[in-house]
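Q: I'm teaching a short session on how sequence maps to structure, and I want students to see two examples side by side rather than one. Could you give me a first protein with its sequence written out and its structure tokens following it? Keep the formatting plain so it prints cleanly on a handout.
A: Of course. Example one:
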Amino acid sequence: MQTATETVTPAGQPNAARKPGRALHLREATSALHAQVDAAMMAGEPMKDREHYAQFLIVQYRFHQLTRHYFRDPILNGWLPGLAERERLAALEQDCRDLGLTPEHYLNLPLATPRHAAGRATALGWLYVTEGSNLGAAFLYKAAQALGLDADFGARHLAPHADGRALHWKTFVAQLDAAPVGDQYESLVVEGAQAAFLRVIALAQGMAQG
């Protein structure tokens, strides 16, 4: 049975102490998709006014619903301590309500709870994208403040963590690099991140066209 602290590699050896570099590899493997996400998001002019920002919120809310079960998975929380507290779905729901949106109108079925090693490897890729979006939200938060939004109204999900964005991200990266994923599943981590970026692109393009 797989535990939160050990996964067996093809050679039969535990991969509990994964060498650093997984996050860097993900960054390199998804750089083109990341650029496409940025372009798709900016095409919708999310910070033009509150109406455009509301459409941006819908995209964010629908995307973050997808990873709901990942943030609550006990084994993933063992690999990534504090993962459950990182989830921003509740903040997004309240941000939507602040802007007069009804979250129930924008429900999105979450991805299935991972039940095996392959599923959790894929989940790590999705979580990399989800958490990375918070690191890059600094300029969005500043722009949201120009619209009269902040950590108490409308832009809760963009607000920095009390520890600061950089330290919060550095902690996550260290956990991600150390997560005990078997070597045979490493490609699934990349595939998960790629799938997450592609989903964001699709949602953002829908916002720009809508």
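Q: Perfect. Now a second example for contrast.
A: Example two:
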Amino acid sequence: MCSGVSKSIAIAVACLAVLCGAFNGAFATVPELSSSRVVFQTNYGDIEFGFYPSVAPRTVEHIFKLVRLGCYNTNHFFRVDKGFVAQVADVAGGRTAPMNEVQKLEAEKTLVGEFSDVKHVRGILSMGRYSDPDSAQSSFSMLLGDAPHLDGEYAIFGKVTKGDETLRKLEQLPTRKEGIFVMV
């Protein structure tokens, strides 16, 4: 009887070890957020972001500078694709207010892609870009669902810390399809 109990315990321990390894792999790519926060105020509610400077330091620095300069003021979401992304327009073309020279200079900077093993899941902030992986400027997406096909292809720099109810409201907005995009 003792050997049967020992085998059962050994099997349970082995299963637990496999599960722990699987969970460790799944959670190993969740970086720590910095204490800094930015709040975007929308007509549908506020969205607060936290940032991953250990994952994408140049991207975080660039976004913070754009925020401090007021570049995202009067900007908009140009794309809301339910269950996928809410994408903030590039500040050089998405603002309704004109930019001063300092804002233009920062807005036109192109970032080298800072790709990581962090997963694209609901709430993640991920830089927009063209086909060139080093072409991100100021457009970014808030993930409205899991998008594993973006993993390692787009620079993740933070996540939504408050305002998921606002994201849910954005997902309900009427949209129109233009080519491959679902536009607001």
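Q: What should students look for in example two?
A: Point them to this: Confidence is low (pLDDT under 50) at residues 5-28. Also worth mentioning: DSSP finds five helices and nine strands in the chain.
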